[in-house]
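Follow-up to my earlier ticket, as requested here are the two runs.
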Amino acid sequence: MLEDLKLGPRYDGFLFLAETARNPPVLKPHHHVELELNLVARGSITYVVRGRRFTFERRTVLWMFPAQEHQLVDRSDDAQYYVAVFKSGLISQAARGAGYEGLRRENIEGDGVLSTVLEPAMFDLILRTMELTVADGLDPDLLNREAGFGVGSDFSFEHGDPDALNAALRHLLLLCWRCQRGKFAADGAVELHPAVRRALVLLGEGAWDDDLTQLAKHCGVSAAYLSRAFARQVGVPLSRYRNSVRLGRFLELRRARDGRTLTELVYAAGFGSYAQFYKVFVQAYGQGPRESLRPRER
């Protein structure tokens, strides 16, 4: 899915800090015309790219190129990671030398993810630069709740000082690429079975997420095999992933503000009961939905 990040003309990109405790738990497979960079500040994050699972630990910087569809499928409970994107215009202006030619491509060769683990001193420098840059941005709660909904959202990124943001993005782009140059795509990926890949697609579409037997049937395997393979290869139990998808769907439905009650949205998202939804929500955010969502009601 091609996602429109809705970046206004004043911005050469954006930067924000995503956190497990505030960010929607699962993003749909997507790509965008902007180059994306992630820096794992704490914990770990897991992506599926081209049918392979990649997990990145603290101090890792990783790149997603415009034609590279990617899906965030899991994060550790303490995960914090910066997400930066860069418009092609910024890249053209900043990356002129031969050493930065790789930034101008649409994709990478092979099925990997270009990444590198930063040395501690460089990690501290880049992390501090990102911390200072986001200080003038939107409220972190708002950014985490709204980011990632793509074309179905009317949300757009804002920053208190666009000129300073653009300058910082240019600096971060070149600095991180200097750390990356000469290194190869990530190793250690887990190849996903076709049935697991199919399950990820169907669950993301909301198909058979309440019936494991039917889901497995449409993936061409037994329910027992799908459960085992999914947990082993994706690194997340199928039931937990399914509930994360439902929770993300609930948050997306809630954004529509179509007059439905909280309980009606819970069932529309695929939960079997409010009690089940409440348990999943508390596990994800550390507090109940009414307490967590109250700031958006103002």
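Run two:
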Amino acid sequence: MVRKVLLASPRGYCAGVERAVDTVEKALDLYGPPVYVRKQIVHNLHVVRDLEARGAVFVDEETEVPEGATVVFSAHGVAPSVHANAAERRLQTIDATCPLVTKVHVQARRYAAEGYTVVLIGHAGHEEVVGTMGEAPDSIVLVESVADVARLEVDTKVAYVTQTTLSVDETGEIITALRARFPDIHAPKREDICYATSNRQWAVKEMLSEIELLLVIGSRNSSNSNRLVEVARAGGVAAHLIDDESEIDETWMDGVTVVGVTSGASAPEKLVEGVCDWFRARGVDDIEAYRLVDEDVEFRLPVELRRELALAETQR
């Protein structure tokens, strides 16, 4: 019987997600609905539904947005071709790409311009990877595993960049393999895996010895949420990814006394509250934070939006 729930810290929204969601909300306030959003602004079902209810319209491609309309690009970043298509359709664009993803784009472009073959460590098909590869499609090759490194055929100097939401441990193994194969490989000055992804994985590792089960709140397509599940399982603790409390299976609790709860970087805190209420309704009163770690990273809103908001302020 579960007698205690420990809440991982840090968890939930990162600065990039907060900025992206704020961007859509402020654009709706400023222009009124509809505001179009290319792809899911962040990978969370609840966030997307809440914004839809306020008048955001989510589309798969910028080419689906009516000419001249306002479109927000998601936190995962887009390829240069998307900007070109948007300009052609005279769309008013607001780029909510996370600044840490933009940093990877800039690095990839720079390496390609200097004649490097750029090895991108990431997951095929993830929006962030698609956007990064679009920066220099002829110069970037994707690797997803150590086995992929062994298969690389490269006859130029080599550099690497990584998707920002990967497993710190797995990425470390791939980088080790790359360095072994290409001793002169050029590396980013600072690692590309974002602070929030690293911190959330670290927080899970810290609490594994105290818990018998981990619930990770996040959507199926959230890369960083899936990595949290993997971190727990790699440490020998059962773990499940849930969108909200409605997906908890009571049989998971059989023989479990302490449950850990965390949430991916795109999951709002209200979902954690919902899970805590689920346990309270079953008589669990001992719900506490496992260590308290503050993240004080903040990103300013996209420049296009700041400019418009400032203009609106002066016209009042």
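The only thing I checked on run two: The first strand starts at residue 4 and ends at 8. Let me know what else you need.
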